[in-house]
């Protein structure tokens, strides 16, 4: 025992000794003079000129795919798990849940993937798809989604990407507005198309991706008699029999029209050229050290979202392997995984992952709950180790990377790391602000950097990206080497790029990744896109940021989210929501501020595990989770928690909600209350809970 304790104490004392050393800061961005509106502009410190291609000649995604497949012909590219069985389980309260048993990953090499995409491209010609017509991909993330995309590029076809969770009205709008003639979908989405067939004006052909392990033909009753319906494998087979020469695109050609899941109104289609998308690949590739063929990436976010399509494009360009999964089968305890079956991360053991903050928050709460359940010495040791590692990450050079890191990783955090497969070396968080608490938790427990990024569909994802050695929280990094970041004055909100000590203003992004505008929406395009005297395109984001001394940007506000209260105070809804999400009881939140009142209220989706743990610890009685959420004692506890979080973040009193409505059901894309990236649809939530909001203000 004495030897064991000595093995722990020596590294701890060494860590404390070296923690006195000051870490030198470095400039991560430099100021430059460029055209356009007056402001403060910065670029990445490592490159004097903006990057446009990952290597010379790779100026379209079609060429990039062809050259990469030739370079890495025998390496693994696309992995899919085999479905062994599917069954239904009924819970004690009578609800039915589908459970699946999944096997190992089966892999397609780069060479095989290229031939599959080439066959599918020829197959599209064989079934009658003509040059100039558009293809829509309307499916969950999977290998065939990626192959269909690359196939379309080889025919210089513009792909319309649509979220699988998009509502009927938005789906019909997207397909009709872009005059899509061929839809590539999975079997689940095929049923939606069949039901809506009378409302689809231009669709002529539907290609469906087969379900793994399901050889039955889908039911097409009620579908339009004018449609040609064929399976994905059949179209590939036709392409092998009737090969067609590729029709390769130019850099200026539109590769994708990506329909955002927009938080208000009908979705807008963002036009992305090959030049735009390749520039993002070129820039992001430089931000991940050692990115290459040894990396394995877990793909599970929607490929119709710019974050995932940019990530997969970057990974395949580097020669990495991409294994496909699902949020419902990700871990060994995921809701759709049959007990005893490995989750996707356990089976794949990825080295790199992307995630949205909501998923990372759930990972954090899951680990905390499991540790607390074990109690005793295990919980005490975890808490001590966590505090030591946290102090190390935030201050001690040796503690962050030296002896103590290895000690705690071996003694405490090794089993926790196995939750994500045990090999993850880095994670990217995007799509929404990540709380500092969750970021630090991942840093400590999984021993890896979790890097925040910032970008928009209109800028082909990554505009900023935290550097690997940056251990700060709350920031989204410096500009990626393919774009400029400029702060311009927003005088109405009081944000000026001349502010000291930190320049502030609306974030404007310029460079080759700035997209071509909105499809058939000239008015909106001219409102937020500008071209300067040098021909460079700039996108006005509406987000408010500030530059830190080292050139990293922090998002501090959003123009559309600011509400003026009755007595003249301004409330930034998004800023406050990001702070209050730090409460362990908050799963999702929408702050609401009425200009005719002097205080705020909020609708909160409660975090079930945390609230039930509190109730059990304090003896609060409840029959089900809905009953617990309506209990006055529960509401009082949640109000107390968010008040503490608000006080720690130094929010003003008028920014903190005085009343809340607790919900027991999660907001999902299927409910229409959040986007596919899990951003709240503020106006939809306001209308849905209009009576509750009215009652809270009474």
Automatic annotation (TrEMBL):
Catalytic activity: a long-chain fatty acid + ATP + CoA = a long-chain fatty acyl-CoA + AMP + diphosphate
Database matches in Gene3D superfamilies: N-terminal domain of ligase-like (3.40.50.12780)
PROSITE patterns: AMP_BINDING (PS00455)
Keyword list, A-Z: ATP-binding, Ligase, Nucleotide-binding, Signal
Record-annotated AMP-dependent synthetase/ligase domain positions: 99-519
Alphabetized Pfam families for the sequence: AMP-binding
Domain of life: Eukaryota
Signal sequence bounds: 1-15
InterPro entries: AMP-binding_CS, AMP-dep_synth/lig_dom, ANL_N_sf
Membership in a protein family: Belongs to the ATP-dependent AMP-binding enzyme family.
PANTHER family from the UniProt entry: ACYL-COA SYNTHETASE LONG-CHAIN, ISOFORM J, LONG-CHAIN-FATTY-ACID--COA LIGASE
Protein name as catalogued: AMP-dependent synthetase/ligase domain-containing protein
Annotated source species: Sphagnum troendelagicum
């Amino acid at each position: 025992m004495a030897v064991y304790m000595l093995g722990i104490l020596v590294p701890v004392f060494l860590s404390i000794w070296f923690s006195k050393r000051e870490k030198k800061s470095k400039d991560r961005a430099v100021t430059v003079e460029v055209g356009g509106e007056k402001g403060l502009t910065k670029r990445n410190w490592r490159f004097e000129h903006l990057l446009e291609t990952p290597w010379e000649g790779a100026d379209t995604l079609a060429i990039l795919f062809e050259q990469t497949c030739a370079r890495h012909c025998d390496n693994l590219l696309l992995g899919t798990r085999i479905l062994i069985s599917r069954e239904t389980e009924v819970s004690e309260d009578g609800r039915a849940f589908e459970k699946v048993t999944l096997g190992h990953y089966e892999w397609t090499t780069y060479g095989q993937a290229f031939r599959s995409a080439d066959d599918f491209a020829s197959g599209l010609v064989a079934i009658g798809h003509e040059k100039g017509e558009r293809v829509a991909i309307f499916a969950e993330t999977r290998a065939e989604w990626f192959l269909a995309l690359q196939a379309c590029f080889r025919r210089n076809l513009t792909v319309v990407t649509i979220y699988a969770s998009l509502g009927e009205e938005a789906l019909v709008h997207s397909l009709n507005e872009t005059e899509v003639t061929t839809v590539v979908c999975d079997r689940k989405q095929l049923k939606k198309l069949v039901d809506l067939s009378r409302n689809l004006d231009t669709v002529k052909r539907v290609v469906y991706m087969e379900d793994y392990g399901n050889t039955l033909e889908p039911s097409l009753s009620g579908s339009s008699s004018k449609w040609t319906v064929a399976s994905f494998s059949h179209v590939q087979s036709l392409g092998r029999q009737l090969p067609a020469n590729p029709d390769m695109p130019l850099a200026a050609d539109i590769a994708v029209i990506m329909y955002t899941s927009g938080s208000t109104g009908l979705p807008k289609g963002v036009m992305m050229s090959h030049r735009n998308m390749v520039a993002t690949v070129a820039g992001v590739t430089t931000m991940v050290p050692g990115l290459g063929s040894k990396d394995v990436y877990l793909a599970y976010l929607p490929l119709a979202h710019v974050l995932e399509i940019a990530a997969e494009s970057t990974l395949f360009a580097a020669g990495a392997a991409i294994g496909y999964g699902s949020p419902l089968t990700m871990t060994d305890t995921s809701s759709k995984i049959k007990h005893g079956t490995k989750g996707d991360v356990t089976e794949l053991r990825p080295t790199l992952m992307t995630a949205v903050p909501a998923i990372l928050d759930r990972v954090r709460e899951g680990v905390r709950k499991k540790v607390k359940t074990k109690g005793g010495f295990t919980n005490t040791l975890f808490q001590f180790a966590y505090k030591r590692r946290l102090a190390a990450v935030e201050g001690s050079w040796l503690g962050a990377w030296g002896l103590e890191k290895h000690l705690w990783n071996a003694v405490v955090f090794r089993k926790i790391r196995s939750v994500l497969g045990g090999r993850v070396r880095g994670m990217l968080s995007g799509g929404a602000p990540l709380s500092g608490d969750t970021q630090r938790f991942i840093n400590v427990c999984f021993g890896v950097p979790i890097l925040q990024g910032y970008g928009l569909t209109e800028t082909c994802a990554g505009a900023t990206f935290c550097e690997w050695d940056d251990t700060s929280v709350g920031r989204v990094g410096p500009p990626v080497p393919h774009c400029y970041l400029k702060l311009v004055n927003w005088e109405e909100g009081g944000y000026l790029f001349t502010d000291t000590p930190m320049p502030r203003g609306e974030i404007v992004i310029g460079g080759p990744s700035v997209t071509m505008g909105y499809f058939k929406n000239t008015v909106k395009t001219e409102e937020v896109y500008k071209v300067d005297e040098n021909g460079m395109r700039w996108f006005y984001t509406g987000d408010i940021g500030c530059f830190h001394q080292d050139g990293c940007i922090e998002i501090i506000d959003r123009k559309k989210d600011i509400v003026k209260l009755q007595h003249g105070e301004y409330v930034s809804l998004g800023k406050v929501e990001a702070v209050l999400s730090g409460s362990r009881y908050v799963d999702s939140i929408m702050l609401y501020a009425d200009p005719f009142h002097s205080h705020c209220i909020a609708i909160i989706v409660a975090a079930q595990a945390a609230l039930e743990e509190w109730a059990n610890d304090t003896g609060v009685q409840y029959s089900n989770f809905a009953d617990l959420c309506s209990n006055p004692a529960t509401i009082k506890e949640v109000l107390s928690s968010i008040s503490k979080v608000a006080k720690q973040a130094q929010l003003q009193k008028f920014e903190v909600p005085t009343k809340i409505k607790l919900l027991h059901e999660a907001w999902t894309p299927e409910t229409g209350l959040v986007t596919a990236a899990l951003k709240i649809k503020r106006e939809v939530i306001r209308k849905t809970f209009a009576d509750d909001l009215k009652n809270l203000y009474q």
